[in-house]
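Researcher: Good morning. I'm working through a list of sequences from a screen, and I'd like to move beyond sequence-only analysis. For each chain I'm collecting a predicted structure so we can compare shapes side by side. This is the next one on the list. No need for commentary yet; just the structure.
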Amino acid sequence: MRAAAAQGDVVPVYVLDDDTPGRWRTGAAQRWWLHHSLASLDRGLHEAGARLVLLRGRAGERLPELAAALGGAPVHALRHHEPWSKRQEAEVAARADLRLHDGVTLAPPERVRTGSGGRYRIFTPFWRALRTQLPPPAPQAAPALRMADAPRGDRLSDWSLLPTNPDWASEFAGQWAPGEAGARAALDRFVDIAADYDRARNRPAEPGSSRLSPHLHMGELSPAQVWHAVEAAVGEHAEPFLREVGWRDFALGLVDQFPDYHERPSRAPFDRFGHRPSNDADAAADFRAWRRGRTGYPIVDAGMRQLWRTGWMHNRVRMIAASFLVKHLLIDWREGFAFFWDTLVDADLGNNALGWQWIMGSGVDSSPFGRVFAPVGQGEKFDPQGDYVRRWVPELARLPAEVIHRPWEADPATLAAAGVTLGTTYPWPIVDHAAGRARALQAYAAARA
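Model: Good morning. Structure tokens for this chain:
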């Protein structure tokens, strides 16, 4: 915006392009966020004497058309790294004066190079190399804007980005404040607790996560803003969190190198891995139980219900739930990726793809497949008192901590006192942990043979 404003009058414009990404168009939860973020941006522009022009269609057509109508004005935009973003940029550049600017990462991924000039595929050496290019430039104040004459564009309400019947996002507004003002408030809240991030981030019952990911993904905050605010607030204690911001850079760097990273495993054995077929009735029932938070494993179910109700899931629980899907249930990781893409307000292509391939063990930088999370053990380790489960799986709220992560081991009197009837008020586990782990390892051994 600063570069555009320096040249004279500007026309702030957003194009809703559902065509170029194809099946990976913006998911339902992010469309809810997008509606409110655009409304907030328009209000802010009005206060600055400008307004937001909304256009719908292929960005490679609508932006050049608008630029031509404005006398061949240059088009300024942030450079992105998703494959469809690159296609959009190429299409716009072929028909208009496109001027791209860096800012979605701490440093442009293609500039973080090995000693021999290659690209990094492992995070730890990437982080060391990225660290030499940091801190990023300090954020600058927003410029004054002069609005050029422009077409009215679409009405936001006509885009139907919000759910109607049923309104599955009814609780989102109590959790999130999309827009720059909400992003700044979220950053202010986080810097107050950032010194304890390294411990609290693994406790889903505690407010230890930054919850900045949707604001970063939607461009309401820049990673440079986040870096400088957190480092100024907590100094050397900022390192664990800043490393996570660097992980986001790493993830975008991988999709920049491998445009199909969200669709193809990077390790050969996983091309022939024995996932249960999607048309198998039992597999379909298990996938449905996972999505609805009815697996019989409380920590998994708590995470999936948090996702349904808020559009977000605690990162530690994301790993537990993802591991359960791909290993205990042998459901293809791409099915989980697609579900998260549609239901997460922070469904970033890089982080989502990297996370699923990391859990599966199929990515260029990933956990070994044999690392199968035990959902009971994970629950007892990271939610020892069961407070996270009690919040999101209220039918188990009256169980004591000793059995809340394994209700099938509670004696009848304890279950009765808590109002729990297994198989009725709460399901039995849909798969035995030991049997599920053995089946997963057998499938992996067959894929490697």
